[in-house]
């Protein structure tokens, strides 16, 4: 790959794909223009993690719509949950949710979080995610496409 | 004290000080937004709009606060002290005008120790919840602060030696009267020291990574891990104000041209524009530096800060030798 | 003068009361007497400070051959007033403290006597009177140090260090003063002052160095400080407060009185030595304070640090005086005295607070404290006032004096001569560096000591201490706040004292209202306005947040990454807090680390137990004092071989000696 100087990057066009402005809906977005998420991997194969990283990367750039991943659930508006809920992670998931200040959302990212996916019914699993917490937004897909993740986040920020 | 101020003069300086305060309260978060934007563009992203930090603050105000079960009154009080100390430092300093309110008290020592007060209460708040992360953040922040504060003090002192006063508005006025000072070697040394301190005090790369998610590499972020909602908004605002203030102070002390020397509204407007331009230039430079450099290993940071301190001392020496 | 004598008399009465009264009333009796002594002497001192006129007394009655000479001038009065303030607080605090310790006959008799000697030293005006008072102070403080030796073996060790250092110091002072008195042909301070100029420069310098050694060891200046971090922590807390808040002051007093006033300034290099001692003490003390995890040891090292700052001021004053900048010298001296007074207030408060913690929790090891904000709310607030003052936060008294000290050094840059400038620059750098380190040390003291979860049962079951102890702390916390907000109140008194110290009429460039101002360099501070502005900003922010923000607050478990079990053992300790700084300054602190790992029997990849120990000993003690001590021990062993207790051998020694004498005479 050709090395580009930092200054040139700043002044040339971004590699990010332009997306159309969101269609105006009657429903008010819950977090207008600012959404911080704590990512919780409760038993993922890391396929979803790759796609999330991609969604926040240069091409899809979910960050431009006001979404951001943060380090502490105290700073977050919700949890971005990936994977099936394994026995070891059920407790930490609950604690993380309790640590998140209201109002908060839970986003189930990927088939495993939505309905167990290919791991449904396997031996190490505590329960389905929706049996343990109230899910507000689902992003199906195994793994979900970065565009799908970005669209789900845009639905919450309204940008 | 010595100068008697007429009522209208006092009123005017109060107004200009409030202009300074409003400018930094709004401008501090915007500077953060600009730096994030530059970073995003350097990475080839479009990035969030530059007013994103203000949106985040507005959103945080609508959320509930969460206090850790073992925490005391320190946790909720600290954000207010942080914001108040930054506000007092901004109000008394010569940023937009050389005649801010309480200008006689605008001493370099006052400003440095007001900032130290903010750092101390925040470090105490980090220890208040009794968690490993908070303690780690406080310990590291105080380690870096213990080296950065002296460098800041001595860096400004270098200007004091040259101007013969430790009063900040007088230093700025003296620099305006002697434009050739700005190019002197002691100014250059002091400016580099000042920049290093700004990086340390505001937790930027290469000293701290403000966007890290890994607790073990955190410094400042680990300290405020327990804050939520409006209190987090205040902490973030306080930090943004400190960043805006330090950048503005650097701009005013080292490149004061454009600053208002009277309370004429037209001059104030010009000064606001000039200061914004100067601050944005420094902020963009720091952001580009951040993109270009990797974060230093924690125990390499003191070497950088000690280097800053030595530069500041050298600057004083140069000032004493060349006077 | 009558007031002073009545005060000193009350102190002696307290000592007698402590010795003869029955146990139930003697604590209260001595406390009343010593409080009375403090109030009276404080009155006498403030009168002298207010009028600026010295009072004198000579009586041939008390001491045989020489009589006693007392003279209360503004310089001495400043020290007496400070001591009286700390003494009053310590006496008041002692009532509650004595419920457990400090109630034995020795303790109740010695405490007023120690206080009286502290009040007496600055009022003496002849070599003999001074030395008697000085020795009384040394002996009583030594006995008080031993009061709790049955509970703590460390107290005995501390006593040995303290006794040796004090006596070496006293011997040096004795020789130095006698040298001066011999030359003057009279032993009053007035004689010495008038004849100082006739002394040859070499002798004058020798006398200076001797008294400097003595007084600097009392003040705890590095490298003569080794006794201080042992003795101050091991003494009972009211005594620690007096030691750190009043006794170390007298070391500074001695340097100012003898070298500055009596010898009339001397040579530039004297004062450069003093500045060097100050810089060394400030940095060394501050570094060790950040590394200590014993609360009282931390405070003791921070005393070394603050004494260093004062010495920088005193040295700068002397250097500027000798180079002919009288008014700048007066300013530096004023700043040094100001910081000394402030240090007495906040360090006294902090030591009393540390004693309260020790009383309430049974330990003063920061690694075992924590969670005291709810259990000891008043102590927490009072300790925090002291800690914020010592960290020089705006609105507290340490800020005003450190500002003035820095300004006086900045002012001093107007002086010429490379040596002076380098010394002043070193002083500025030390002042700046200690500011940051002190802040780190006291964030550790409050953050680890009071906040978080309790780290031991003692801390978990602590209860607030008695009202008399709280009152004692409050008596010292109040001046921290009042002087912090209105530092100008003390300006006149300090001005008079520094005028006496430098033998000039008051001509400092300081202008004081409620705040402080230096028109010459256009610098000023008005802490009251700053505090008002800060409070207004806080209230405004609070109001705005109340109006626009959501107001619900929820209590939840602290965030620990979703870990199942979070206990106080996972908290940061004082040791871990100080570890990064310890590593940064490893060259000075030279911490010892011992790690012992025990593996499980099956595999050495799994550890069963990890034992970690870290220690930051005093490097100077190890490098300088230990070799001397082992040398003395070798000599002692040799001597004890000669002296084995056998009467026959002693008779043989006597016989041999007699023969030698006879041979020599023949």
Top keywords for this entry?
heterotrimer; B: 323 residues; mainly alpha; 11 helices; disordered N terminus; C: 666 residues; three-stranded antiparallel β-sheet; two-stranded antiparallel sheet
Largest interface (CB < 8 Å):
B-C, 88 and 84 residues
If strands are numbered along the chain, what order do they take across the biggest sheet of chain C?
Answer: 3-4-5
Principal-axes shape call of chain B = globular
Percent of residues in helices of chain C comes to over 70%
Topology, number of strands of chain C: 8
The DSSP helix count of chain C reads 25
Taken in chain order, the helices and strands of chain B follow as HHEHHHHHHHHH
First-last Cα distance of chain B: 29 Å
Mean pLDDT of chain C: 90
Give the overall silhouette of chain C: globular
Main sheet record of chain B: none
Structural class of chain B: mainly alpha
Radius of gyration of chain B: 19 Å
Describe it for me?
- The complex is a heterotrimer of chains A (159), B (323) and C (666).
- Chain A has six helices and seven strands.
- By secondary structure, chain A is of the alpha/beta class.
- In chain A, strand 1, helix 2 and strand 2 form a beta-alpha-beta unit.
- Chain B has eleven helices and one strand.
- Chain C contains 25 helices and eight strands.
- Chain C has a three-stranded antiparallel β-sheet with strand order 3-4-5, covered by helices on one side. A two-stranded antiparallel sheet of chain C has the order 1-2. In chain C, strands 7-8 form a two-stranded antiparallel sheet.
- In chain C, a hairpin with a 3-residue loop joins strand 3 and strand 4.
- Chain C starts with a helix and ends with a helix.
- Chains B and C meet through strand 1, helix 3, helix 4, helix 5 and helix 9 of B and helix 16, helix 17, strand 5, helix 21 and strand 6 of C.
- Strand 1 of chain B pairs parallel with strand 6 of chain C.
Write a compact overview of the structure shown.
The complex is a heterotrimer of chains A (159), B (323) and C (666). Helix content of chain B is 70%, strand content 1%. Chain B has 323 residues and is mainly α.
Please write out the topology:
The complex is a heterotrimer of chains A (about 160), B (about 325) and C (about 675).
Chain A: H1 6-11, E1 35-41, H2 47-55, E2 67-69, E3 78-82, E4 85-86, H3 87-99, E5 105-109, H4 111-115, E6 125-127, H5 129-132, E7 137-139, H6 146-157
Parallel strand pairs in A: 1-2, 1-3, 3-5, 5-7
Antiparallel strand pairs in A: 4-6
Helix pairs in contact in A: 2-6
Chain B: H1 7-42, H2 52-61, E1 65-68, H3 74-92, H4 108-128, H5 132-163, H6 168-177, H7 185-201, H8 220-223, H9 229-254, H10 265-292, H11 301-322
Chain C: H1 2-20, H2 23-51, E1 55-59, E2 68-72, H3 74-97, H4 105-120, H5 127-145, H6 153-184, H7 189-195, H8 201-219, H9 228-234, H10 237-262, H11 268-291, H12 295-322, H13 326-361, H14 372-375, H15 377-390, H16 397-412, H17 418-449, H18 457-460, H19 467-485, H20 491-502, E3 511-512, E4 516-518, E5 523-525, H21 527-548, E6 553-556, H22 574-584, H23 586-589, E7 592-599, E8 607-615, H24 619-642, H25 647-665
Antiparallel strand pairs in C: 1-2, 3-4, 4-5, 7-8
Helix pairs in contact in C: 1-2, 1-4, 2-3, 2-4, 3-4, 3-10, 3-13, 3-19, 3-20, 4-5, 5-6, 6-7, 6-8, 6-9, 8-10, 9-10, 9-12, 10-12, 10-13, 11-12, 11-17, 12-13, 12-16, 12-17, 13-15, 13-16, 13-19, 13-20, 15-17, 15-19, 16-17, 16-19
């Amino acid at each position: 790959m050709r090395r580009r100087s930092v200054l040139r990057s700043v002044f040339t066009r971004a590699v990010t794909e332009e997306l159309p402005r969101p269609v105006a809906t009657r429903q008010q977005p819950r977090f207008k223009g600012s959404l911080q998420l704590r990512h919780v991997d409760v038993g993922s194969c890391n396929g979803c993690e790759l796609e999330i990283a991609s969604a926040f990367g240069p091409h899809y750039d979910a960050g431009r719509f006001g979404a951001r991943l943060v380090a502490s659930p105290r700073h977050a508006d919700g949890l971005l949950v990936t994977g099936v809920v394994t026995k070891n992670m059920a407790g930490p998931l609950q604690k993380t949710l309790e640590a998140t200040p209201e109002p908060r959302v839970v986003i189930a990212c990927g088939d495993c979080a939505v309905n167990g996916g290919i791991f449904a019914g396997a031996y190490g699993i505590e329960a389905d995610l929706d049996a343990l917490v109230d899910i507000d937004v689902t992003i199906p897909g195994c793994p979900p496409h970065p565009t799908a993740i970005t669209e789900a986040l845009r639905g919450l920020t309204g940008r | 004290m010595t100068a008697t101020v007429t009522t209208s003069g006092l009123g005017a300086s109060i107004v200009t000080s409030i202009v300074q305060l409003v400018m930094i309260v709004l401008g501090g978060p915007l500077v953060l937004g600009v730096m994030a934007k530059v970073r995003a563009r350097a990475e080839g992203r479009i990035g969030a709009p530059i007013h994103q930090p203000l949106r985040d603050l507005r959103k945080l105000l609508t959320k509930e606060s969460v206090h850790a079960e073992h925490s005391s009154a320190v946790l909720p009080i600290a954000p207010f002290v942080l914001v108040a100390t930054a506000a007092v430092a901004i109000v008394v300093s010569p940023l937009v005008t050389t005649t801010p309110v309480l200008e006689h008290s605008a001493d370099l020592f006052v400003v440095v120790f007001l900032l130290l007060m903010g750092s101390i209460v925040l470090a105490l708040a980090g220890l208040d919840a009794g968690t490993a992360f908070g303690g780690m953040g406080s310990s590291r922040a105080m380690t870096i602060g213990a080296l950065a504060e002296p460098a800041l003090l001595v860096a400004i002192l270098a200007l004091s030696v040259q101007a013969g006063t430790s009063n900040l508005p007088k230093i700025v006025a003296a620099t305006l009267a002697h434009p050739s000072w700005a190019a002197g070697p002691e100014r250059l040394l002091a400016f580099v020291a000042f920049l290093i301190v700004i990086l340390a005090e505001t937790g930027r790369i290469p000293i701290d990574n403000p966007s890290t998610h890994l607790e073990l590499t955190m410094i400042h972020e680990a300290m405020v891990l327990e804050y939520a909602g409006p209190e987090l908004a205040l902490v973030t605002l306080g930090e943004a104000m400190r960043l805006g203030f330090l950048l503005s102070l650097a701009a005013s002390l080292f490149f004061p041209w454009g600053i208002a020397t009277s309370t004429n509204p037209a001059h104030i407007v010009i000064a606001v524009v000039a200061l914004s331009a100067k601050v944005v230039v420094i902020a963009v430079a720091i952001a580009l530096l951040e993109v270009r450099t990797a974060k230093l290993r924690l125990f390499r940071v003191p070497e950088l800060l000690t280097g800053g301190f030595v530069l500041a001392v050298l600057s004083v020496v140069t000032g004493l030798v060349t006077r | 003068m009558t007031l002073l004598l009545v005060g000193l008399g009350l102190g002696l009465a307290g000592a007698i009361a402590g010795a003869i009264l029955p146990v139930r009333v003697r604590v209260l009796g001595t406390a009343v007497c010593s409080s009375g002594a403090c109030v009276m002497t404080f009155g006498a001192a403030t009168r002298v400070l207010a009028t600026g006129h010295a009072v004198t007394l000579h009586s041939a009655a008390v001491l045989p051959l020489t009589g006693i000479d007392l003279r209360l001038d503004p310089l001495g009065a400043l020290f007496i007033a400070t001591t009286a303030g700390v003494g009053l607080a310590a006496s008041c605090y002692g009532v509650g403290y004595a419920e457990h310790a400090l109630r034995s006959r020795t303790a109740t008799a010695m405490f007023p006597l120690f206080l009286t000697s502290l009040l007496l030293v600055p009022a003496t005006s002849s070599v003999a009177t001074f030395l008697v008072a000085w020795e009384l102070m040394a002996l009583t403080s030594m006995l008080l140090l031993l009061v709790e030796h049955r509970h703590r073996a460390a107290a005995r060790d501390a006593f040995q260090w303290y006794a040796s250092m004090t006596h070496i110091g006293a011997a040096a002072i004795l020789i130095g003063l006698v040298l001066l008195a011999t030359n003057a042909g009279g032993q009053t301070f007035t004689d010495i002052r008038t004849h100082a100029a006739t002394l040859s420069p070499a002798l004058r310098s020798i006398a200076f160095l001797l008294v400097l050694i003595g007084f600097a060891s009392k003040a705890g200046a590095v490298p003569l400080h080794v006794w201080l971090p042992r003795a101050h922590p091991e003494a009972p807390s009211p005594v620690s407060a007096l030691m750190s808040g009043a006794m170390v002051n007298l070391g500074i007093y001695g340097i100012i009185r003898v070298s500055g006033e009596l010898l009339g300034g001397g040579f530039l290099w004297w004062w450069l030595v003093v500045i060097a001692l100050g810089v060394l003490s400030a940095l060394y003390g501050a570094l060790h304070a950040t590394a200590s995890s014993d609360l009282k040891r931390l405070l003791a090292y921070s005393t070394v640090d603050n004494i260093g700052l004062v010495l920088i001021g005193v040295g700068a004053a002397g250097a500027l005086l000798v180079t002919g900048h009288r008014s700048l010298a007066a300013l530096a001296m004023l700043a040094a005295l100001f910081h000394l007074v402030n240090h007495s207030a906040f360090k006294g408060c902090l030591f009393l607070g540390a004693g309260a913690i020790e009383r309430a929790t049974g330990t003063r090891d920061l690694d075992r404290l924590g969670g005291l904000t709810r259990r000891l709310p008043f102590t927490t607030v009072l300790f925090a006032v002291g800690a914020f003052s010592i960290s020089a936060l705006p609105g507290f008294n340490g800020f005003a004096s450190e500002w003035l000290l820095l300004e006086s050094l900045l002012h001093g840059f107007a002086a010429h001569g490379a040596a002076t400038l380098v010394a002043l620059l070193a002083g500025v750098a030390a002042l700046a560096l200690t500011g940051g380190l002190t802040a780190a040390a006291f964030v550790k003291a409050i953050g680890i000591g009071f906040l978080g979860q309790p780290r031991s049962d003692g801390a978990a079951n602590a209860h607030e201490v008695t009202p008399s102890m709280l009152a004692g702390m409050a008596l010292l916390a109040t001046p921290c706040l009042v002087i912090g907000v209105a530092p100008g109140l003390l300006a006149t008194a300090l001005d008079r004292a520094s005028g006496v110290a430098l033998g000039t009429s008051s001509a400092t460039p300081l202008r004081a209202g409620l705040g402080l101002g230096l028109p010459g360099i256009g610098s000023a501070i008005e802490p009251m306005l700053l505090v008002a502005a800060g409070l207004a900003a806080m209230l405004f922010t609070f109001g705005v947040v109340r109006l626009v923000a959501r107001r619900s607050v929820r209590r939840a478990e602290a965030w620990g990454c979703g870990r199942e079990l979070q206990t106080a053992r996972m908290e940061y300790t004082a040791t871990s807090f100080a570890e990064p700084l310890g590593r940064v300054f490893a060259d000075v602190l030279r911490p010892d680390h011992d790690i012992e790992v025990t593996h499980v029997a099956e595999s050495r990849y799994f550890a069963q137990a990890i034992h970690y120990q870290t220690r930051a000993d005093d490097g100077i003690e190890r490098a300088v004092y230990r070799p001397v001590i082992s040398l003395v021990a070798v000599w002692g062993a040799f001597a004890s071989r000669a002296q084995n207790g056998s009467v026959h051998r002693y008779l043989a020694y006597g016989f041999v000696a007699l023969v030698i004498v006879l041979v020599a005479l023949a």
